[in-house]
Amino acid sequence: MSRIIDISPTIQPKTAVWPGDVSFSRNVCLDMKDGANLTLSSMTSTLHIGAHADAPNHYKADGQAIDECPLEPYYGPCQVITVNIERALRIHPNDLSATIAAPRVLLRTQSFPDPNQFNEDFNSLSPELVEALHDQGVVLIGIDTPSIDPFSDKDLASHNAIARAGIRNLEGLILDHVEDGLYTLLALPLKIAGADASPIRAALIT
Fold this sequence. Notes:
By secondary structure, the chain is mainly beta. The chain has helices spanning 127-135, 157-165, and strands at 4-6, 25-30, 40-44, 52-54, 75-82, 90-91, 104-108, 124-125, 140-143, 168-171, 181-186, 197-199, 203-205. α1 packs parallel to α2 (157-165).
């Protein structure tokens, strides 16, 4: 029997965002608890919050906005791989503990353990890994950290690498409770016109 495994953090005011970015807040306009006939609210937030999909226009001047991205990369066969390296390091091809067996790869680093507490020494991708995965037919790479590049990298080497390769990426996943292996990924971004990213409700289906 199939099972759905949620790999998204809860989005709430205390959810950590990139330093200087806009935190999540929810404004309740009407509330049935106060006698209104319904509950109605709005929100303010960076689009790069929790589990999210970057759009190419986030890292490439003429890249597609999230509403222009095809949905196929965000759904289908997926492989979860644990990576055991020191904090703050980029992941290289020889750091992978398994042979690539699916066109979508999610990397479990456990280097950003608390989605409500930002730490700068998380793991990230190397351009060499992006190129190697592209050569093996990978169309999407996900990671359990806030970025596929290190905190201090202003050149965004790995973002530029996925732009060249045409690979999509997911960031901010929660993979602590997931065993390595093969799954079906469901992580569709919202269709937000012109947007550079979208929060997602990412899940794995056994």
